């Protein structure tokens, strides 16, 4: 930082805000720190009583906050993200399309642990809409050592730490099980709920089968749906531990790889997730709560399935913290704490 005459300041960078006060009109910064002084600015600065200015003195070992912010932005920005103009060392990212927002938590922590810089994002594994804000970055000081940004560049070589996976609309087969529905004792109110949830992500039901509590029939129906090209199979009913609840056994007997039967989420503890064959087609057993609760485990998993983002057993296990839905009278999901543990 050095002191210079304002008349000679064109092209230099201000080290501090310069406030303009007009009685009854404004009292605010007329020029912000980091502003590059132009010839047109000089008469205005003189009119504000600034005959001298403190400006940034460039050196080979230092970067201005805006230049450093560009490096930080490159470490974050990925396909499907729009960025703001850099201002005061800050850049914000927004979604250019609907999709599943992902965060590399480990590398995010590494950058935030470097000091003098920060990245703040919304939670990962969150469905977002076009135009939603995703993250903001900032360089804390006005100038920062160039060497401080080198670890950021190294981390960025692995690719951006943020990603926005577009949805891949899928055709689903729904297999409704239960003697009570099959024999017409009650009306199927489960399938319409699934249909609405699939529509949120551009997916649709291509096949719907109703079967009694017979695990052999259910197994055959799942395999037939897969042979017919179903891109996901959703089984409803028979997911409890009663003697007549045989859906988990039916899914297991298809030969699918069971990721988890049960999840630390309420509503949704009796959820089952499996992947079938070399193409890893998702097969799910949905507990009854999906039918009558506003948001459940299905709402947490479905956007990842639609975005072709594989779900692991460890990730499901991590949902215990944040996996308790409060059942708010006015639901704001996904802008709430539900399911933010993974």
From TrEMBL:
Annotated catalysed reactions: adenylyl-molybdopterin + molybdate = Mo-molybdopterin + AMP + H(+)
Family annotation (InterPro entries): MoaB/Mog-like_dom_sf, MoaB/Mog_dom, MoeA-like
Record keyword Magnesium present: yes
Cited SMART domains: MoCF_biosynth (SM00852)
The UniProt record lists the keyword Metal-binding: yes
Domain MoaB/Mog: from-to ranges: 173-307
Pathway: Cofactor biosynthesis; molybdopterin biosynthesis
Assigned GO CC terms: cytosol
Keywords: Magnesium, Metal-binding, Molybdenum, Molybdenum cofactor biosynthesis, Transferase
CDD domains: MoeA_like
EC category: transferase
Origin superkingdom: Bacteria
Molecular-function GO term, any one: molybdopterin molybdotransferase activity
GO aspect biological process, one term: Mo-molybdopterin cofactor biosynthetic process
Cofactor: Mg(2+)
EC number(s) recorded for this UniProt protein: 2.10.1.1
Family per similarity comment: Belongs to the MoeA family.
Functional summary from the UniProt entry: Catalyzes the insertion of molybdate into adenylated molybdopterin with the concomitant release of AMP.
The protein's name: Molybdopterin molybdenumtransferase
């Amino acid at each position: 930082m050095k002191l210079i005459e304002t008349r000679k300041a064109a092209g230099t960078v201000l080290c501090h805000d310069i406030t303009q006060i007009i009685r009854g009109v404004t009292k605010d910064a007329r020029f912000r720190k980091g502003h590059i002084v132009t010839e047109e600015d000089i008469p205005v600065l003189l009119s504000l009583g600034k005959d001298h200015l403190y400006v940034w003195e460039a050196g080979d070992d230092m970067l201005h906050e805006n230049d450093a912010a560009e490096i930080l932005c490159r470490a974050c920005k990925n396909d499907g993200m729009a960025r703001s103009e850099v201002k005061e060392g800050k850049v914000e990212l927004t979604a250019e399309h609907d999709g599943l927002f992902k965060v590399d938590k480990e590398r995010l922590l590494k950058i935030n642990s470097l000091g003098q810089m920060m990245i703040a994002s919304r939670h990962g594994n969150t469905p977002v809409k076009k135009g939603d804000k995703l993250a903001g970055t900032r360089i804390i000081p006005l100038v920062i050592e160039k060497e401080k940004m080198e670890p950021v560049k190294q981390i960025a070589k692995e690719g951006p730490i943020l990603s926005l996976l577009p949805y891949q609309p899928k055709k689903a087969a729904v297999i409704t099980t239960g003697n009570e529905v099959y024999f017409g004792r009650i009306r199927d109110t489960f399938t319409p709920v699934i249909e609405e949830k699939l529509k949120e992500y551009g997916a649709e039901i291509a096949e719907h089968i109703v079967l009694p509590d017979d695990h052999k029939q259910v197994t055959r129906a799942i395999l037939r749906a897969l042979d017919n090209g179903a891109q996901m199979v959703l089984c409803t009913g028979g997911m409890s531990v009663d003697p007549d609840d045989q859906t988990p056994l039916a899914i297991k007997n298809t030969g699918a790889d069971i990721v988890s039967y049960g999840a630390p989420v309420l509503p949704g503890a009796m959820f089952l997730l499996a992947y079938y064959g070399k193409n890893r087609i998702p097969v799910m057993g949905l507990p009854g709560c999906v039918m009558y609760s506003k948001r459940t485990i299905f709402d947490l998993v479905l956007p990842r399935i639609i975005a072709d983002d594989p779900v692991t057993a460890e990730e499901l296990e991590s949902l215990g913290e944040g996996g308790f839905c409060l059942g708010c009278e006015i639901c704001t999901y996904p802008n709430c704490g539900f399911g933010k543990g993974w």
